[in-house]
Amino acid sequence: MSSSDRIKLSIDPGTWGPMDEDMISLDPIEFQSEEELYKDHIDFYQRKKGLIEAIQIGTSKLNGIPIAIGVMGFQFMGGYGIRVGEKITCLIEYATNNFLPLILACAFGGARMQEGSLSLMQMAKMSSVLYDYQSNKKLFYVSILTSPTTDGVTASFGKRVIEQTLNKTISEGSHAAEYLFHKGLFDPIVSRNPLKVF
C-alpha cells in the first residue's frame, strides 16, 4: 500500500494538510555505485512514485480530532535518509508545540547506506524529540508498524540468526506477529480497513 493510499484510509476526507513538501533528499557523500549515481536513483523514484521522499507528513483530522501524522512508503527506496529523519523530527516538534496527538505509520527497512552514517544518525535525533514529546510533554503517540517493516536490531534477533548463533532450534512461529503480541511486545494486531475506527 502506498503512503498516499494509507493517508486516505487513515484520516477524515478533505482534511489533509501536507507539511515540508519542499524538503527533498540530498546526496551528502556523493555516493556512486557501478550502475548509477545516488542522486539519479532518487530522481528515478521521485518520477516513478510521484513523491519527493519516502515519507509524507502533515496535519489532518481523525474522527474530527486534529492530529499530526507521518506516513512512510516502503516503495520509495525502502529506507530512510537524512531528509526523512528531518521531516519526522519537524513533525514531532510541530505536534509538541501545538499539543497535537501524533501518528507515525512505519514501512521501512532501515537507514539508507547511500547517505552513510548521516542517515543512521537520524535515529538518535528522532528518538530524542519523540522522548520529549512522550515523556516530558505527556502527549499521545501512536506507532503503526506496517508490512514490510524491518530493522537491523530486531533482524539480529530473528529465528535463523538465533538458531545459527546458539546452534539450537527455535519453535516455528516464535517470531510471528501473533506470537509477539501474546508475549506483550506490542498492542493489538489490526487489519488496515478498521484501523481508523480502532
From TrEMBL:
Name its species.
Gossypium davidsonii
Q: In its UniProt record, which GO terms are filed under biological process?
A: fatty acid biosynthetic process; malonyl-CoA biosynthetic process
Q: Which domain of life is it from?
A: Eukaryota
Where does the secretion signal sit in this chain? none
What is any one of the record's Gene Ontology cellular component terms?
chloroplast
- How is the subunit organization of this protein annotated in UniProt? Acetyl-CoA carboxylase is a heterohexamer composed of biotin carboxyl carrier protein, biotin carboxylase and 2 subunits each of ACCase subunit alpha and ACCase plastid-coded subunit beta (accD).
The GO molecular function terms of this record are: acetyl-CoA carboxylase activity; ATP binding; transferase activity; zinc ion binding
Which keywords does this chain's UniProt record carry?
ATP-binding, Metal-binding, Nucleotide-binding, Transferase, Zinc, Zinc-finger
Q: Per its record, how is this protein called by name?
A: CoA carboxyltransferase N-terminal domain-containing protein
What the entry lists under Pfam families is as follows: Carboxyl_trans
**Domain (CoA carboxyltransferase N-terminal) ranges:** 1-198
